[in-house]
């Protein structure tokens, strides 16, 4: 399936309501569920009427000098100095309502994702590979192994019908790791040449908190889970670690080095920083 098809599919799916649908071009703001009218006010909350919506919030008085807004799983929390009146606080909320509703929707989407059941490892399961979903196809074929059909974006895994979920996971993980070795080696060669550096060795890591590392003597480690991301994000980590062979720090010279080979590195950096861990399949 092409990127375009995926996009169309997403657009056509009425359940896939994006934030752009909610906040794209119009000034209409759809109410998050916490603003459904005529529900009892939760304990410790205040209720503010905004146009035709109810917005419940918690008010905390503090020594701070300005009014602060925070959105968490309990909704909106407002922190305000003791001398500010409720009317002033509610005027401040009203002036920030677009931002508040957008953040509340984002928060709600995150909690919904957290509640989603974990991926089921079976025929038809999907997982991200180089930034796009691929479908796992399990068949009891005579040739043991894993074969990727790039045109169909299907990963064919040969396993007997009696195979366990763990066996399927292991096969897919093994394939992703061999792909990681191949792709990372290619990208390392490209960026090492661009940067005019050479590295001593490269190995895969599976650290949960780190995408890559580089030692002063040129040993590079890259997380195989990067294979879930689009190539520009992988290139950023590759260029980042190789740039350490010129600048063993994160100073301005270091970032200038990364930028010299990857001008739009900030986009990739942000994508990796903002990714939701629960989006990645668990092996
Ligand atoms: Zn670094």
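Q: What amino acid sequence fits the structure above?
A:
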């Amino acid at each position: 399936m092409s990127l375009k098809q995926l996009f169309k599919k997403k657009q056509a799916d009425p359940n896939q309501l994006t934030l752009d649908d909610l906040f794209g071009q119009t000034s209409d703001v759809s109410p998050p569920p916490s603003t459904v009218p005529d529900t009892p006010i939760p304990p410790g909350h205040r209720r503010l009427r905004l146009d035709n919506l109810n917005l419940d919030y918690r008010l905390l008085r503090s020594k701070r000098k300005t009014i602060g807004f925070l959105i968490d799983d309990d909704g909106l929390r407002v922190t305000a100095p003791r001398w500010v009146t409720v009317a002033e606080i509610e005027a401040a909320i009203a002036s920030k309502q677009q931002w508040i509703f957008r953040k509340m929707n984002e928060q709600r989407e995150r909690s919904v994702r957290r509640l989603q059941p974990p991926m089921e490892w079976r025929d038809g399961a999907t997982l991200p590979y180089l930034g796009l979903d691929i479908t796992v196809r399990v068949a009891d074929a005579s040739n043991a192994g894993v074969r990727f059909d790039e045109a169909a974006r299907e990963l064919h895994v040969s396993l007997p019908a009696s195979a366990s979920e763990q066996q399927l996971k292991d096969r897919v993980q093994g394939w992703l790791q061999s792909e990681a070795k191949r792709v990372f080696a290619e990208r390392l060669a490209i960026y090492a040449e661009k940067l005019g550096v050479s590295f001593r060795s490269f190995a895969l890591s599976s650290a949960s908190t780190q995408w890559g590392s580089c030692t002063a003597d040129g040993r590079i480690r890259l997380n195989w889970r990067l294979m879930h991301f689009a190539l520009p994000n992988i290139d950023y980590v590759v260029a980042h670690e190789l740039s350490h062979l010129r600048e063993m720090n994160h100073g301005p010279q270091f970032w200038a080095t990364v930028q010299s080979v990857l001008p739009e590195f900030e986009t990739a950096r942000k994508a990796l920083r903002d990714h939701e861990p629960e989006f990645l399949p668990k092996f």
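Q: And what stands out in the fold?
A: The longest strand covers residues 53-62.
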